[in-house]
Write a structure and sequence with these properties.
This protein is of the alpha+beta class. Helices cover 24% and strands 19% of the residues. The protein starts with a strand and ends in a 6-residue tail after the last helix. This is cAMP-dependent protein kinase catalytic subunit 3 isoform X1.
Length: 518
Amino acid sequence: MLKLKLRNIYFTVVNISSNIQCSKKINKTSMSKNFPPSKNGSSSKLIAGTETHMIKLTALHNKKQIPTTRTSTNNTNTEATFTFKLGRTTGSDVSGDLSVNSSESSDPVESDYSEKSEDEKAQQVENTHVSANSHSISSVTTTSMNNETVDGEKDESHDADDITNTEDSDRSEQDDGNDTDDEETDNESGESSSNLTEKGGRKYHLDHFQIIKTVGTGTFGRVCLCRDKVSNKYCAMKILAMTEVIRLKQIEHVKNERNILREIRHPFTISLEWSTKDESNLYMIFDYVCGGELFTYLRNAGKFSSQTSNFYAAEIVSALDYLHSLQIIYRDLKPENLLINRDGHIKITDFGFAKKLRDRTWTLCGTPEYIAPEIIQSKGHNKAVDWWALGVLIYEMLVGYPPFYDEQPFGIYEKILSGKIEWERHMDPIAKDLIKKLLVNDRTKRLGNMKNGADDVKRHRWFKNLNWNDVYNKKLMPPILPDVHHDGDTTNFDDYSEMDWKPTIAIDQKDLKLFNDF
């Protein structure tokens, strides 16, 4: 049986050819099968945790035994130094939560290439928000045009987000490395940041929540199961230490995650109920999803059937279509970030990499096996990266491991850029066709990123038997029903030592002002 292990890895890549220093976080998925050593001969080293011990990447991961695709590198002028933190541990296994480690000056200038005037943009955003708040669903219109053949769509394969206007391109914004836009945080600046907040006619306070058990840990915080003493309902509380958020330069990322989660409401995305802070920590209250991670079920099963994979892929497509309609890119799609609810339906979680996007962004972030080619090549990326990640996810669900794997990140990137995929002999040919059309290196020809957007994905033959309104309304029968005995059940999550809680350190008033709008 294929067993997967989760690693939390931080590393900094120094790109000599472009003279750009970028910080990235990798969540490394490895497997207990034996893989042959990488043939690229890389001797990159890492600094484990906060210690100064140097260890080779090959010593961190158990090797797998499948043929390694021979690839050529397009990064011959690139050097790399890696720094990573190990995340949570369960026995001898290491796993963890995700966050990006970005330098404030790491990213190039991010420009707005849109052809539309500012008034038109504002009207479009307003209309999008109205549509989102009413939970409207785009109807899939039947058409006689064949939108599935990549080669036949050259006339329609322009990237709608890549249209360049010379006047608008002169207006640029500096990406501060925290990967958020100034206007996004300004929108929240007038809101109350006290511990006492009204929502839906109710006032919340930290004293209303009783912490029961830790269900996840990360680099600068943890997620706990809590009970709301007022409603007697269970919820998840994400606790982030402000000292660590500041030290890791994650201020804007954390605020950006909070702002996006406040905006979205969809059946297949996690719901933020409330957020606040005290003198030491940031707090976010979510609905508690007690079924555990899709990652766990995939690890235990080895791989999923085409029917099971189709079910989860459809719910993800519905969620991505919704997020993209709000100009939000997710950028961290993978089994570890898909929770299974008690009813068997998914909830996408961890929006730390999500961003409200007007055109393109150059921030390098994500999980190596799921990173799209345009991110690796620093060409700027947009919503197309989510469709690439969907192709990787479908492959991983059907096969049991991602299509691009190597013991070292650079080896993974080489394989991604080569575009070579090893296909299982008995893979569903229709699912294989969809994966091929999602894993197209040229994003302008990638399914989901062309003229018809997500509708092209929805109309693919693999989804032909689906009614997308039924998908949205959760009328389909889930293939997996978690073993859950009550709403506060934690048996589907790993156990964590409650002795690991560190004393909270109050930050000074100057630093506290950095979180005024939280």
